[in-house]
Amino acid sequence: MPIPLTTLSQSSLQDYNDCPRRFELRYLQQLSYPAIETEPALENEKHQKEGEFFHRLVQQYFVGVPAEQVAKLANTANLERWWENFINAKDLRGLRDLGGLKTEVTLSAPLGKYRLVAKYDLIAIDNEKIYIYDWKTYRKRPKNEWLAIRWQTRVYRALLVHAGAHLNGGTPIRPEQIEMRYWFADFPNDPAIFPYQRDQFKRDWDALTRLSEEITSASTYPKTEDVTRCSYCPYRSYCNRGIRAGDALDAELETEAEELFDLNFEQVGEIEF
Questions:
Q1: Residue 170 buriedness (CB in 10 A; 0-12 / 13-18 / 19+)
Q2: Whose CB among 50, 94, 196, 219 lies 3.0–4.6 Å from 175's, allowing a Cys bridge?
Q3: What is the rounded CA–CA span in Å between residue 39 and residue 231?
Q4: Whose CA is closest to 213, among 8, 3, 75, 67?
């Protein structure tokens, strides 16, 4: 029997936004994936695993492991290239020297009947500025306009305002302090940068509240009308929307693996409201 849904994340919200039926199958019914997401499957799986391992390399670096030691673990062509790009990126130099670095941080806050949860690759505090860094190993550089409307960009900044005070010495974080940066391992000199403002925060939290209420009251979960999305959906055979998987280069911009949270909420930062 499926475990009742108690948390929402940027991934589950994006799924609901893109296709309520996929949200239902993945998060409510918790069905296994019956179809290959992308072609060629093995190559894409290898790329995803390398991306996950790259995140671990960067985490090790930011917790103080010497760069030369971390470099020895970059044992594939992709990992070696990504690591070289990372360690030589001008806009990342000196980042490890900041005193307020938090790596692999999970934050949570109440959102309607759910808890909104996000796991951050890196949060860096530099005086009054607070930077959210997210590492991406996309093979295509997505457009900033596309990233700006994704739920990850909206959730990560809004949740940091609500639940990040303990990272800031107990002082509440103002939206104007926050800047989110996507750093692309294959496009190291072209990060996507998103500052934040109070009106954006209000817009985002209002939208999150409405969406959680909609999910709570939903009794039906219609399929998306944009059938092009179905090429990248592992549940497409349930909907009789084709058997051929989409191209991996396009799919990775549309589908990202959901983070599996094993949370002790007493150890997760939050502000009740």
A1: exposed
A2: 196
A3: 10
A4: 8
Helix (H) or strand (E) holding 158: helix 151-163
116-128: pLDDT as tens digits: 999 999 999 998 9
If you average pLDDT over residues 174-196, what whole number do you get?
98
| Three-class SS state of 271 | coil
Q: Is the dihedral of CA 245, 246, 249, 253 positive or negative?
A: negative
What whole-number distance in Å separates Cα of residue 28 and Cα of residue 42? 28
Cα–Cα distance measured from residue 222 to residue 220, given in angstroms and rounded to the nearest whole number: 6
* 136 membership: H or E segment, kind and range: strand 129-136
Q: Which two tokens stand for residue 88?
A: 């030589």
Q: With beta carbons less than 8 A apart as the criterion, state whether 117 and 89 touch.
A: no
pLDDT in tens, 57-67: 999 999 999 99
Q: Are 47 and 78 in contact (CB under 8 A)?
A: yes
Element (H, E) at 102: strand 100-111
CA distance 41 to 258: 18
Q: Which residues contact 76 (CB under 8 A, 6 or more apart)?
A: 50
Distance (Å, whole) CA 40 – CA 44: 6
